[in-house]
Amino acid sequence: MISDLKIVGLGVATRQGSRQSASGSHAWFAPQRRRQFAGPRLVFAIFGALLLHEARGEAQQVAPVPLSPLASFAPSEPAPAPAVKSPILADPEVLPGLPQVPDQPASLYAPAQPAFTCDAPQQPYFDCDPRTDPPVLPQPGWFADVEVGIMLPHIMNDTHEAVTVNGVTSRVQLPGGTLDWAAAPRFELGYRLPEGFGEIALAYRFLGAQGHGTVSGPFDAPDAPGSVLTRFDLQVADLDYASNELSICSWWAKWRIGLRGADVYFDSKVDESLTAAEAGSGVFERRTTNNFWGIGPHGSLELERRLTDWGLLVLGRVDGSILLGRVNQGFFETSTTKVGNQFLTGQTLETEAMAVPQLEGNIGLGWRPPSCPALRVFAGYENEHWWDVGKIYASGSNAQIYTNGVLLRVDFNY
Question: Could you tell me the CA-to-CA distances from 42 to 12, 34, 229, 371 in Å, in that order?
Fold first, then answer.
């Protein structure tokens, strides 16, 4: 920039010298003119030098050259070595024997492909095998069982509660009457899987009985002997899984486990003569009801042994369950006093959650004909017991039921 100022100043001085030589006749006022225009000339000289320097700088600009990323480092510093990538190892195969499912789909815009396919089996998945399904045992397929028990039920009734009717409170406690013999059928339908995979069965059993008698006492018939009617109803449904097992002692064992639901109901009613009741307590009819319903686990074990070559068998079975449910009880009295056309009645109701255990067992002889191993006939003795079906802790009531009798059963596989 200083050189530019010198050039501009030299040019101005040259022009001034030429003017002095050309106009020598006006030399007498030259110093005065120079002093008059020295300031503006200096300003123009500096401004011109600046413009000239800017023009030269633009003319000398060179197009930028792209630099490598390493050019930013100082020459004294060595360029950093490129990082060495460690090799990427494939995921280890945890279970190399199983099919390795690829990542599908590779793109979100591509349709998904089936991850794994296989050919259809050449034979059924379940196939009969004489080693797991020996001919001496029931064969795979549908089966049905029908049992008929000739049973005599007994009710151990100790339920009681206080009832108020017509302003008088008395205790109601009726004995369980003697029940008659009754048939208890049981129906079972199921399917047995091949290759020893067991069977699934659904069963339903019911028993209904009633009995009559005559009772007398301070709580059931205080005025005169009364006639008692007792009714009993039992219904049981099972959904089980069962499996056949062979032992080394020529015994065939069959166990089952599943779910059981049951409803147990009984009631008793005592009627006195109206004349005796009017002269005495003023109550001529007393009635109690008890109902338990519940559901819970169920299991059984059955043993069978072949005694002869012509198919004679000895059979035994133990069956048990624990049902979780509720006991509902009702106690009722009917007075000899009428309101309109109806007698006055009083009642007391009780309810409580209860766990009821149940146990059943039977033993007897059976026959499976060698020419038809799908058929089996059984006859034997059976005993069954139900505990706490009428238990109420608040009042101290309780009731138990047991049955015993002859059991006949026919099994058939088809």
Answer: 9, 12, 145, 142
- Yes or no: say if 288 and 330 are a contact pair by the CB < 8 Å rule: yes
CA dist 210 to 172, 213, 328, Å? 21, 11, 20
Total residues belonging to the chain? 414
> DSSP states of 332-354 as a string?
EEEEEEEETTEEEEEEEEEEEEE
- What pLDDT, in 10s, does the model give residues 378-404? 999 999 999 999 999 999 999 999 999
Give the list of residues 6+ apart from residue 38 with CB closer than 8 angstroms, or none: none
* Rounded Cα–Cα distance for residues 139 and 196 (Å): 10
Burial class (CB in 10 A: 0-12, 13-18, 19+), 203: buried
pLDDT per position as a tens digit, 200-239? 999 999 999 999 988 888 877 888 888 999 999 999 999 9
Pairing of strands 251-271, 221-246: antiparallel
Residue type, 227: S
Question: pLDDT under 50 in the chain at which residues?
Answer: 1-2, 4-31, 59, 62-63, 65-75
Within 10 A of 38 (CB to CB), how many other CB atoms are there?
10
Residue 35, both tokens: 């002093």
Alpha carbon distance 231, 268 (integer Å): 7
